[in-house]
Amino acid sequence: MSSTLYAKANAVYADNSLDLSANVGYLVTFTGGVPAVNTSTTVPAKAVVLDARTRVVDLNNATTTTYDNALGVLGTLAAPGRGKISASATPLNFGDAVIQAADGTLTNDPGPGTARVVVGLLSDKNGAVAGDLAEICFFTPQIRS
Q1: Left if phi > 0, otherwise alpha if psi is -120 to 50, otherwise beta: which for 25?
Q2: Cα separation of 22 and 27, whole Å?
Q3: HEC assignment per residue over 31-62
Q4: CB 114, CB 87: distance < 8 Å
Q5: pLDDT, tens only, 41-66
Q6: Which of 7-11, 85-89, 107-111 is predicted least confidently?
Q7: Mapping DSSP to helix (H, G, I), strand (E, B) and coil, where does residue 14 land?
Q8: Count of CB atoms situated within 10 Å of the CB of 70
Q9: How far is residue 122's CA from residue 138's CA, in Å, rounded to a whole number?
Q10: What is the pTM assigned to this prediction?
């Protein structure tokens, strides 16, 4: 759907405030408009790092480092993105719910009885294991207990 009322065509935002190149697929939150890797299992993350690059330019013997991060706002992405599966996760199957881990990665939903934030469904047809950068259909974070 196209409208002149939309501010932009998608909910992917550029950020150049810090180096997130080691955090592609990680969930982030914002403090004062600056992203940081999410460290909570119960406070909803705001976005996922879709892409991140560090560029070092040497111009006239002066080295400049810049950062190019693409952040996708959770609940607004038009297509699946990639999420980093936690080192402690057990194998996931297509359609499994994923929750926030305490290090910005994603892990298995333990189900009722545990306070958690569900952020998406695994949409990778091959499933996923710990350490994978897997296809996730991200949605608006849901606080569950």
Answers
A1: left
A2: 12
A3: ECCEEEECCCCCCCCCEEEEEEEEEEEEECCE
A4: no
A5: 999 999 999 999 999 988 888 899 99
A6: 7-11
A7: strand
A8: 18
A9: 9
A10: 0.92
